[in-house]
Amino acid sequence: MRSTSNTIGTRRTVKAAATLLAGALALSLTACGSDDDKSGGSDSSTGSKESGGTLTLPKLDGTTLEVAAVWTGTEQANFKKVLAEFEKRTGAKITFVPAQDPIINFLGSKIAGGSPPDVAMLPQPGAIKQAADKGWAKPLGAEAQAELAKNYSQGWQDIGKVGDKQYGVYYKAANKSLIWYNAKVFENAGASDPATWKDLLTTAQTVYDSGVTPFSIGGADGWTLTDWFENVYLSQAGPEKYDQLAQHKIKWTDPSVKEALTTLAQVWGKKDWVAGGASGALQTEFPASVTQTFTGGEQPKAAMVYEGDFVQVNIADTKSKVGTDAKVFPFPKVGDTAPVVSGGDAAVILKDSKGAQALATFLASPDAAEIQAKLGGYLSPNKNVDVSVYPNEVQQTIAKALVAAGDDFRFDMSDQAPQAFGGTPGKGEWKDLQDFLKNPTDVAGIQAKLESDAAAAYGN
């Protein structure tokens, strides 16, 4: 079974990012906004006027490509604008192929049918390794590797490697250590931004006493629950234990896991603190968990929702403004240090061709990233992206912190795991934590189930 030993050494805590983010989020935030995309010039061998880029791309008239990703809604629409710029500059034609989770299974069926997409956006390092091990993924060519080396820290390059070969371009990143809140609810309740887990519990009680349910949880999507766990675990158990658990070098029956689950139960175990209770949360998908926090005037279904910087895409759907209607604070520290967990999506070539290699090169460039960055709800690990293109101060601050951290970050634990354990709806960690949300008193039982599923997936 898969191992994460080729990349784990680069995944360190983002202490610098946490400090930057905490300080900047205390500032007065500007409203979230996005201008219409203005595509660049017609000469395919020059940079885009949209981004000010200078990347040279080949002429690809007559070339057709397919790009698969699990993205939907606004996220998909914004990415299609990036693909449209590539089409304009090269003459290629690209079809976006909507994929289902787990995307590795979706790709398997496409490959078995003889029609794999040219490029796939893979959300887990584990999926990249599976694709490489199966011979599906093709290594990046010299031009794509050169663009990647120019624009990315070594840590972000290494996450896309399997052994000594570069397969992935991490086009999209995420800071998954943020809690967003309805500013009017907090104002009415007299609640304040918490810095510690204890403070968070106090804030939640204050909000509850004002007549609003504290938390919205998108429990129908198991990945949101793994993110909750990872933030608590990283802060409480520390980075060394986090790495050990990510590699299954310690068992899920370890006392540190018990402590983290017990801490989580302080929120998940209070049915009146979760919108709809456990049963309601388990029927709430991630987008709805956000929108129900920012609709309903002064009586929304919940006051707070946990998730990454990409929440802004869904906040925008409610017509709420970041900085006035919707505000954010860093995930409170449970131990000595506030956690910062990163995630991301990598472009991986499945059909090696001049067109696919050119697209991977483009996605590794600031030219591509700056198009989507200005639309909001997106974060790039590309260090040469001009942070001023992000549409609001929150996004600009998070982007600066990510770049300033360099190789100092911890990648999403479940995304490092084999897909069967950390990335499959209705199975493994996703299902086990859904069961825990349903019954947060059964810590030992869930630990045993997590360990059984992990051992089967890791093969140890």
From TrEMBL:
Keyword annotations from UniProtKB, A to Z: Signal, Transport
Keyword Plastid: no
Protein family (similarity comment): Belongs to the bacterial solute-binding protein 1 family.
Signal sequence residues: 1-33
InterPro entries: Bact_solute-bd_prot1 (IPR050490)
SUPFAM superfamilies assigned: Periplasmic binding protein-like II
Species this chain originates from: Streptomyces asoensis
Name recorded for this polypeptide: Carbohydrate ABC transporter substrate-binding protein
Presence of keyword Transport: yes
Superkingdom, natural source: Bacteria
Biased composition (Low complexity): 41-54
Annotated segments matching region Disordered: 34-57
